[in-house]
Amino acid sequence: MTGTIAHDMFLLDCPGYEDYLDTFVTRCDIRFIRNVRFCRMLVELGYRSPTDIYTPEQFQQHKAAVQESLWPIKKSTIFFSDGMKSEDPVLIEMANRERPNAQKMISTIIFIKHRLKTGFEISGYIDYEQSLHQANLQEENCTDWAAVFGERLKLRPKPTDLSFFDWHKGLVLYNESDNYLVQHDVHYGLIFMHKGDHKKVCVDIDKPEYSKNCTRSMHFSERYGHVVFYDHVIRKKI
Question: What is the pTM of this model?
Answer without folding.
Answer: 0.69
